[in-house]
Sequence to fold (418 residues):
Amino acid sequence: NKPGARSRASGELRYCVWDSLTISSTMAAEIGVVGIHGIYVAWIVLLSISTQVSGQAVAAENVTVVEGGTAEINCKLQNYDGSIVVIQNPARQTLFFNGTRALKDERFQLVAFTRKVVKIMLSDVKLEDEGGYFCQLYTDDTHHQIAILTVLVPPANLSVAVKQQPVEGQDVELTCSVDRTKPAATIHWFKDRKEIKGAVSRQQNDKTFSVANTIRIHVERQNDGETITCEASHPALNRQKKQLHHILDVQYSPTVKLQHPPGVLREGDNLGLKCTVKGNPQPTSVTWSRLNDTLPAHSDIQGDVLTIPALSMLDNGTYICEASNIHGRASDQYILVVYDPGAIVEAHTSTPYAIIGGILAVLVFALICVLIVMVWCSVRQKGSYLTHEASGLDEHGEAREAFLNGNETHKRKEEFFI
Fold:
């Protein structure tokens, strides 16, 4: 080998260095450097060359990817001189040997192999791919670094389980859960944008977690149809939330309302009654009846509507609509009074007179109150006048008596009177 020449084999490099050291000392003697001093200078120079030659290194970067995504594994090289580079998976199976595929897994693709970096792309990442990937550089000493691949498993599907059928006046238990996440997801309940605190439970299944949040709330019939939201957060969702909206199905006993025509009915008119029913579960049918009597023979029932054509006074009575479900029953009634035409006119014209009569009653009451106040004030003023007048008469009588009797003891009063 020539002095200072670099061999690709690391063993040959050491021999090359020592040969160069000997030659360099001879050269040093020729240019005037004497003995050991020349050998020392040459050794320092060649040691620097040897350090630069053997300064190869490899570095790896950790990678985090969502399950099903694509991971990029980078092995960075320093002072690479063409030595052997091997990439291995967590099971220590060789994926690539100096750029050549060694494992038949088409999901791994070598996309770059330069003097600075070896880049591998892994598509359709699975949870089983998680672990350390070895970047190995074979030089005089074996250099290796590990790139840790972390696989995130986001919450796929939220589910809500109801322990029992909600019924008005009772408590209901709701559980929101997700079966497979990594790391464990965080689950919250919300109603009208306010959080409902619940009991959280976690269960680990190998590398993944099952998470559940259970709440217990009191429900009434007005809560039927309201929306309650289960919300999950997870690092793989990039600060977004996964939500599931659950609509409360609260069962309750029915309510019944009879709708009837306004005003007064007369003979010959037609009557239509509609029975409006609300309940959960919704009653499928209604029952029509007349109190203490049967329905008129000419009446017609079409579900929740009762029709009686050509009314007569024989149709008078209390008509009842009734409905029921598994939680109870309810009814409403309408009292039918059929008038002759003469009574109808009075009944219709009585409505404005009733309003006018009410107004007049208020005015009469106000007038009576004013008169009472005026009389009270007048009586009070008159009483005060009579009191002063009586006091004057008393003084006049005493003065007169003193004058007639000539009593000296009453002289003052007499003079006062004069």
